[in-house]
Amino acid sequence: MSLRDNAIVAYSETKVMKKSDRDVWVLAGEILESLLDKTGFEKKEIDALVMSGLTGTGGASMFWAQSTCDMLGLEVGFCEQVHTGGCSAIGAVARAAAAIDAGMCEVALCLFADTHVREHNGRNDRNYRRDWTEPYGLLGPPGAFGLLQRRYDAKYGVDLRALGKLAVTQRNHAIMNENACEELRVPITVEDYLNSRMIADPIRLLDCVMLADGAAGVIVTSRKRAKEKGLTKCVIPMGYAERTNFLGGENLVDVTRSGHEIAGKKALAAAGLNIKDVRSFHPYDDFLIAIVIQFEALGFCKPGDGMAFVRDTDLSYKGTLPMNTGGGQISAGQAACSSHNLIETVRQLMGEAGQRQVKDTANALVTGIGWINYGRNWGSSAALALVPNQ
Amino acid sequence: MAITLNDTLGVKRDIKHYDFGMPFWEATKQKKLVIQYCKTAKKYQHFPRPVSIFTGRRRDIEWREVSGKGTVFSFTIAHRGPPAFQGAEPYAIASVTLDVGVNVIADVVNCTAEELKVGMKVKPYWLPLANGEHLLMWQPDKDAV
Fold it and tell me: pLDDT tens digits, residue range A198-217?
């Protein structure tokens, strides 16, 4: 048994909303209903619920996944909440597959529902911040990425027009994605990026994700069960790896390096792929500079060559390396526990992306980034390589 | 584009500490900077941890006073602060590499936007807190060569 003995047999997502007009569990119910309809599974066949812990609505609840089982009438043999921040969506797929492999369940609902704009129930994180950054007014992620991007600039040089190209490419994709947040579906130019107001210099408004509400989900089951059920159109997770607290046992690290060096290599090796074989790429995007650092850490280009790589590569859905074809989080909205890029990857590999469909669906790579640590870059890095069912 | 940097000296701070970091805060009462040192790895670490991040052992940790002199590793200028800092923007926050090889993040004072650069030499500025402790900040070290 291994990861690749499992399959994602269906995906579903709500439209991303600037602020949800309905309760988080209504959104969750819509996802469940849609996934049951798509797969033909009966509710009672779903025997696992794997949720993302990256939620402002449910995050403060110690019993979020259990409460959700109760609300949705699910009786399960595996109930799990994944806590690797923005790695939780792809981490949920890997954990569901591992639980299936371990014989704990057969049909897993990976559910990503959050209405953190409509109803944020607070957080009580216990970490370094209360002593070591809050007294200095360092504003969460934008502040940390301000420090990161300035250091990248000092080491390698930042090409703001290359970052602007990323912003425009993703925005053009969001305009083609009717599930993207409507308020973000307006064209922008590189000049708009350059002129957007500073938040945490050098981080501008258009470098940043905007929080939004929404829900998404996938069903993961064994390939055997999928076949029995006649679910031939599915996507196979071939390789997954994650790294938390990269270089955490060192005191002074190069912040332009990330744990994707390790996670990417392991995930691709498990999938039998070379980075140059990747046909579409769906990197976690909380800030544009994170995409550049991932190009380098994953080996699309050498360290320091990320800006040139962006300049020289057509990253549009019809380009040589289609990237975040749903708009990414930055242009679709940071919703549904940051699962947007995973859902888009599955949609592309099933050939259901409509006008923005990529031509080559031989495989795709999707990544995660989770949490911000002290003066480094991010706490968790994850990568998942997928292929369509042969 | 000239930006005038504000300092954040007037911002009220109520800082909650972890017990394993208390030697740091106790030392600030005398405006002294102490940093955790691992006796086995012979390296410093910051922020304070309950164990050595090099060996995982509590017994390897001791505290050593350091000069506080360092070099700007990176910085950001906050144009939008958290609630307590609103009205103080723009202000600068720097990650500084101390001469003992750790990075320490703090606000920058007595510095213009033109002066502030990666590589700039800095030294401590101590802001008094209501409880007798001081908050470490950075200021340009104009005597440094």
Answer: 999 999 999 999 999 999 99
Q: Are residues B57 and B116 in the same domain?
A: no
Chain B contact set for A130 (CB, 8 A): 15-16
Q: How many other CB atoms are found less than 10 A from the CB of residue A158?
A: 19
The enclosing domain of B73 has a CATH number of 2.40.50
Structure-block tokens of residue A202: 């050098």
What's B88's DSSP letter?
S
* Positions of chain A with pLDDT lower than 50, given as ranges: none
- Whether the Cβ atoms of residue B79 and residue A201 lie closer than 8 Å to each other: yes
**How much of chain B, in percent, has pLDDT values that exceed 70?**
98
* pLDDT higher than 90, residue B132: yes
Beta carbons within 8 Å of A40's beta carbon, 6+ residues apart: A229, A230, A231
- To test the contact with chain B by mutation, choose from A123, A129, A136 the residue with the greatest count of B C-beta atoms within 10 A, namely A136
Spatial separation of the C-alpha atoms in residues A258 and A245, rounded to whole Å: 9
Residues of B with Cβ-Cβ distance to A129 under 8 angstroms: none
A111 strand-pairing partners: A51, A217
Domain range enclosing B37:
20-66
CATH of the domain at A85: 3.40.47.10
